[in-house]
Design a protein that fits this description.
79 residues; mainly alpha; 3 helices; globular
């Protein structure tokens, strides 16, 4: 069942990811990394189960998200 909180989280997650994409295109990698990191706070998936109970595609999505975030932080640190 979809609740108002999960819809709210999905909207905020999407907004922060879009801002991260925008700032990456603009070349502001530190702001992009910050927005991408903040977006993980608003997990867009159902949080009622444990990590192992999530669908595989959800786990892969979040891991890829984290890898991209670490990549952006690496760019910020090296430049």
């Amino acid at each position: 069942m979809k609740t108002h909180i999960s819809t709210f989280n999905q909207v905020l997650y999407g907004g922060f990811v879009l801002m991260a994409v925008y700032f990456t295109v603009q070349g502001d990698y530190s702001t992009a990394a910050s927005n991408l990191g903040i977006s993980l706070i608003f997990d867009p998936f159902d949080k009622s189960g444990s990590w192992n109970e999530r669908a595989m595609w959800q786990r892969v999505w979040l891991i890829v998200h984290l890898v991209v975030l670490f990549g952006l932080f690496g760019v910020v640190i090296t430049t």
